[in-house]
Amino acid sequence: MSKIPQSTIDEVLSRADIESVVGRYVSFTKRTGQNLFGLCPFHSEKTPSFSVNPHRGSFKCYGCQKYGNSIGFIMEIEKLSFPEAVKFLGDLYGVNVEWGEDDGGNGSDLKERKKRVMSILTDAAGFYYKALNSDAGKKARDYAASRKLTKETLIKFGIGYAPEGFDHLYRYLKNKGYNDDELKESGLFTISKKGTLIDLFRGRLIVPIFDAWGKIVAFGGRNLGPELPKYVNSPDSLVYKKQKHLYALNYAKKSKSKQLIIVEGYMDAIAIHQAGIDNAVAALGTAFTESQLHLASKYAEEVVFFFDSDGAGKAAALRATKMMLDYLRRMTGIKIRIKIASVPNGKDPDEYIKTNGAESFRSVVRSAKDVNDYLFARAYDDNYDQETALDLTRFQEDIITYGSWLYDPIKREKMAVQAAQYLNVRSETIVAAMDKAEKDTFDKNNEISRRSQEREDEKEVSERRVEAVNTPKADVVSRDEIELLVRAVRIGPVLADQSKIDRKDVLRKNDFQGENIREAVKFFLVHFDAKTGVSEGVLISKLSQLLFNGIKAEIFFDRVNSSLPQEANEDAEIAKYKQALYRVRIHACERGLMELGPLIIGASDPEEKERLMEKNAALEAYLQELQENLGKL
Ligand SMILES: [Zn+2]
Questions:
Q1: How many Å lie between the centroid of ligand 1 and the Cα of residue 456?
Q2: Could you report the per-residue pLDDT of 508-519, keeping only the tens digit for each?
Q3: For residue 76, how many other CB atoms are within 10 A of its CB?
Q4: What is the pLDDT of residues 212-222, one digit of tens each?
Q5: 45 CA to middle of ligand 1, Å?
Q6: Which of 168, 206, 427, 538 is the most exposed place for a label (fewest CB within 10 A)?
Q7: Backbone torsion region of residue 32, taken as left when φ is above 0, otherwise alpha when ψ lies between -120 and 50, otherwise beta
Q8: Ligand 1: distance of its center to the CA of 551 in Å?
Q9: 626 CA distance to ligand 1 middle (Å)
Q10: Beta strand 160-162 with 67-68: parallel, antiparallel or unpaired?
């Protein structure tokens, strides 16, 4: 359990109002009663089903069923543990949160371990720095000079040298009183076959990696000669997650510029800073991540990316561009412009500055392309050949794919207008093809998220089953549930048509209480997914293997089926289906509420109680919505 006092959690919750917390990621497009609505950041959708209730302090998505309070939202979106999320919000809303972390019972122990690791890293940085200026460090100083790193830069970035040999750092730190367990956690050592600790960095120029507040969290090591690997970096540790950091952000965040220049390597970032351009950072992994983009968006209004211009760099640039566009499409509350630049002649920024100077580099940054222009240029350049000229088929394919990534209709149209000149068709036709490609991807993603949602539901249900006061019997089933299955089979393929039936009105396995009927529904949905549909005959053969309420399921199904007259037309059949669905879901809500009551009363842990009450409120809201929907039919 966390060590954060309840009073602190309460204060965080009272200051971190749900509207502004969620508003950092999602923009609200409509208001209905007490609720604000926007596009869900957790699943892909085109019409808003994600709601926030400022009065109640909670959010809920009617599409993917996620719900919770401000802390729950941050846990989900930032992928943090409960105490980390409280700390995160505390930092944003000015509440001092005593740092304790949920690590299965001993928060203060973890805090102490982190402190020791930070202290080891600081001592190690001192060791490396001194070594650079020792006799043994001459080779490294020569190397730094060859890369034109000035004395001031070496100091500013804390650059050092790791001497040759296997245990210089190890012995130094042992003398400072650290034990082997602590040293192992620092990421500065590897373990030999004999089980002893060996210095990770040997004979390398050392670059300390700072977090945004200037604390050392890791190191990078650059080889002095041509031997491989060129770079060795600290692994992730208690204090370092490379996907969540941007190198040199501690300096760049102080820049007056509202722009961040993002380069691939720290040596590039250092060279740019040395040239007097103070807004450069480096991504530390191989691929730029969503977390890094989000971090950048906290400090800048615009990012300018530099990618390597070789084949691998180009592929990485496309992947990163798509990732960023996807992310920004979902996180409607995050506003940041993306530009992409490239250094002429395939050089990296470091080399370029050395030969052409800072001013020239600045103009390269200024000439960075908007994301749509960049993608257009890629579609053109990648498919252009001196001899055969432009391969129009491939060009067209790329244009449509890239255009479908652009969620901004203006950018999309711009790209289409440009492409129209080459393709000899009207730009409207190209836009329509881009829209269709977007819709196809969207439908595919929806299908994927529906399936993963089902898996999650399954997990939640199995957890709830443990909690439940009355464990349901495997073959328990109500008449309404059977009617729902009958109705679903009758309308069959119509279920897949979103113009007739909203996705959230498609029956789910977990709408049902008993395991046997769930199995039947799953069978139905699997066939449904495979687009083959399912005939009554096939379903009956499945049902003959199952029991409902102790009776052969096929008999029960048949009995209900023949008692329900065929409706006059499809619309009437759909209405009957929805009625059955809402009735079943209402009953499921009511059962859930009945189970929750005693659990809330019995909860001794306040966090658990809070969680259950949230759940209760969400179920009540959902129940109300279902009743309204049923009333409208
Ligand atoms: Zn959702």
A1: 13
A2: 888 888 888 988
A3: 16
A4: 889 999 999 99
A5: 8
A6: 538
A7: beta
A8: 38
A9: 18
A10: unpaired
